[in-house]
Amino acid sequence: MSTEPETTEEAGPGTPDTPGTTEHGTDGAVTAGDTTGTGAAGDPGAADAAGEPDADDAGDGADGGEDAGSGSEGGEAGAAAAGLSEAEAELAAQRVERERIERRKAEKTARIDSGAKLSGTAADLLAAVRAVESGEKPATTAFAEPAPAPRRPAPEPVRRPQPAPAPVAPGGPAPETVDAVRRVLTEGGAPDTLAPQAAAALGEGAGTALREDPWQLLRVAGVRPDQADGFARALLGAACGPDDERRGRALTVWLLEQAAVAGHTALELSTLTAALGKQGVPDPDAAVQGALAEGEALVFQDALEEPGAAAPPADDEDADEERERPVRVLVGLERYALAEESLADGLARLVNSLGKEPGQAWEATAAGLSGGAAELARAVAGHGLVLHTGGEAARAEPAALLGAARAAGLRAFAACHTPDGSRRLAERLGGEAAEHGVGTVAGLLSGAEGPGRDADGALALDLLIVPDAPQLDVESAAMLVESLPDGARLLLGGDPGVLWSAGPGRVFADLLAARAFPQIASRVPDPGPLGELVSGIGVGELNQVAAPGKEIVIVPVRDAGEAVHRTVQLVADSVPRAIGVPADQTVVITPGHGGAAGTRALNAVLKERLNPGPGRFGGFDPGDRIAYSPAPGRTVPGVVVGADADGLHLSCAGAPVVVPRERVDGSVRHGWALTAHQAVGTRWPAAVVVLPGDAAQALSRPWVYTAFGRAERHLSVVQGVEQALPKAVAEVPPKPRTTRLQTLLRAQVPAA
User: Fold this and answer.
1) Which residues contact 717 (CB under 8 A, 6 or more apart)?
2) What pLDDT was estimated at residue 99?
3) What is residue 747's predicted lDDT score, i.e. its pLDDT?
4) CA 256, CA 262: separation in Å to the nearest integer?
5) 652: β partners
6) Per-residue confidence band for 13, with pLDDT thresholds at 50, 70 and 90
7) How many alpha carbons lie under 13 Å from residue 438 in its C-beta half-sphere?
8) Bridge partner residues of 329 (DSSP)
9) Which residue has the higher pLDDT, 585 or 63?
10) Which pLDDT score is estimated for 58?
11) CA-closest candidate to residue 7, choices 729, 696, 648
């Protein structure tokens, strides 16, 4: 469920007090009954409100699918009577042989010490005799009829080349597990619709685990502490109390999960214990210790660097021991802690494994470039990791480096955040993405795109370029770095002003702040009025920009209802007529999913105006624009093509996608209107940014920078926040995230 609700992120964990209203809110909070919390005492931690996972962060459920089933033996006999092919006959014979072998194994109930070389009927007879002597029941097959004559083996069938089958997504939890969980949920007064999610989260034996520890219900996305408390009271009765150690452990893990939703990879111990206290835990320290003892969380002591303090002499060990260095105690989930440590180790390996001489191919690459691209090539030739910053126009420099490196014979590949980003980068090279070595991060990691892997499992690359590095969370970044072979170069680039990753961590920002790697800042500005506007926002200024070609239009509104009306008017009429951009090439961006002018409300009215229909398949009709989330943190815009028994058929970035019926609700939304996080990494000819009056608290400089930067030719701003907009641009920076990457890097990579 990894998300980053930029509107709710704080130094402490978030909590879903207002589900469905923030940028990453769900369509509706999953409830566990109208119960009040035992000892609940308000928000946990310093967060304003927590975003629950939205559609762009959905997709972590198991891919469903109906079993085709296998034929019975009677069905096989009927098929044989009708005449089997050679291959079918061979498979049937193998199945019979396997069954015979399994029966033989099951029927031998005693070990044969003497006569161990006997086999077949003789061995069975000996086993039966020994069973009688020992008073056990003899194997019945020892005196059964003789085995039938050996079957004449079928001739080897002619094997014709077959296309490789598509990978089968793993199925969901076993039906009996779901049924057991459903019974426990019903007994505790919780909705039985949570059963599949709870079974998937708790695994085999989920029903027993949930009965023994009702607060494990908090592992289901969307369940709040007060709901878990009510469920526990219904199951445990008088034995339920706020001081239950099971409750303390479960709340500790839940708070760390909420912190990850807000982008943190760990929490300071004091922040965590304060949040536990707000949840009515009598002894927060004991709750944390219980979670640590059970291995549900990890604790770290990271040394803090004192600003301006001189480093102790290398040979003065006594002075170093006597000098007390300040530390911070952090608590985090193992998943993110190990990913962050793996990322730091991998980056150190890349830096230290580089050869002393760049080689002729790298020299040829740099020689064929000029300006900023040549500077970038020289930096990459001599360093294992290089950081490149700049806006949309600056992507021309890594694109030129990619083309020159491939022309020089180097194995180079660029992995973007979205298919649209791949398309735009490939267009700078004058062709299709695949032919120029351009793809997506997800495609590269899955093996669907890119050069493939060598015998050691490493990517067959000399250079990997990631133009959208700000969208890398710690887990995807760690997987990329671990996949690179020794001696490879890594170029991480992107616009540092956009929203950070939807998943936990702030990888690109941490690497820039560490100052341990070469940093190349592009001097190529984004052109035109839109480029001027967005560049000013990046430095905290909302400038008045001349737009003679109506590149920028401000539409003031009084309330959310008027904002929705004017937005539909712009998308369906004004922008196509005045700017020449059709409705299907215009995106609407708004701060959150809920509210009178959120994505749900806007998508409903836009569908009614642009593609009315009954919603024949889960609310969708052919022609609907959608936002598909194949995995948490990834959103791919697309269009509904149709639906059948297999699921919802989509066209996403020109590729066909089939979403199984059971996953449609959690991974597909209507997509005329998106949040800024859903839109990051993609650009449209026109964008309409909607800022109703109640959106003022959700605004920040990165949000405005990202939303306004999605437009290529035209930007309309429907706004009722008045002076809150320039104030957010000038005064509201990115919300802090607690991470450990800088500390880990300091111990392994010297500062540049």
Assistant:
1) 552, 553, 554, 555, 688, 689, 691, 708
2) 64
3) 87
4) 10
5) 638, 655
6) very low
7) 29
8) 301
9) 585
10) 37
11) 696
